[in-house]
Amino acid sequence: MRQIHESGENYLEVILEIQNELGVVRSVEIARRVGVSRASVSKALSVLRDMGLVEPAYYSDVVLTEAGLAHAREVRRRHDLLCRYLRDVLGVSADTAEHDACRIEHVVSDELINRLEAILQEEDK
Questions:
Q1: For the whole prediction, is pTM greater than 0.70?
Q2: Three-class SS string for 45-64?
């Protein structure tokens, strides 16, 4: 499989978010949340479909494949860990933590994420 880019990961994350909130994912809702045209969403979904991350959904609901769901959940996990660390450990404001985590989640190593998770688990004890 090709490497997925930041924008693709952002789409997967938004699809997962919509799915969790509304149960049904439509391209118009993706467009609204991402702030792009429906044509842009269609193009992004085509790339994700070619990568096997979403089910073919030309004029219907958007559905994550098992691989797409796993990838979306991992991006969300990375985001949540980074956001929590920035906010709770470093004392960054919630808005800044959210914004920065959204950018950082795509480029940090698994080693860093695993280390952050261990640190946060120690703080929970």
A1: yes
A2: HHHHHHCCCECCCCCCCCCE
